[in-house]
Amino acid sequence: MKDLGMLKYFLGIEVARTQEGIFLCERKYTLDIISKSGLFGAKPTTFPMEQNHHLGDSISLPLKDVERHLKLVGRLIYLTFTHPDLSFAVHILSQFMHAPRQDHWSASFRVVRYLKGCPGQGIFLSSSCNLYLSGWCDTDWASCPATRRSVFGWMVFLDGSPVSWKTKKHVTVAHSFTEVEYRPMDVVTYELKWLKGLLNSLGISHPTEVTLFCDG
């Protein structure tokens, strides 16, 4: 076994260390996506997806080069390891992998144009000893036009650094605003309990109460 020194690159993830903490990004991987998409000369967008998109009821032409679209979405999924800001957009695009249309292809290109404006963006893990867990969650009630199911997202921070996040559609239709807000709170509570147990197993105590923020 050979000692290669401090970790700097692993499976496409670049690692930069400072006294303040560790910065993780996928800049080289992102630039490769932009290059393969032929969008180096494209104008960057401010947001990865349009606010009032209608991808679920698209009537645009079926996509001819389906394999290229699937590969692009797959690469974007891998980028969510260091890009929590892509979680919602990738969640939406992943729903149309079985029969993508031209609108879905255009939406995936919009995500790449968004990345063009921030290829080196990533997550920073603080080296602070104040390991305090906190969670945030929110739900978009009945946002799926086809099923009327709600989409929720949550994120967990450890001392202000994002360590866990997810965007997901509810399995069933919620019957009230209270129900639609309670469900993600239940999910992220389990995640917080698991992470607190993980810290304890590593010999790191977490004596303070865990805070969960929502807009219910």
TrEMBL record:
InterPro entries: DNA/RNA_pol_sf (IPR043502). It comes from the Eukaryota. Keywords: Membrane, Receptor, Transmembrane. This is Transmembrane signal receptor. It comes from Lithospermum erythrorhizon (Purple gromwell).
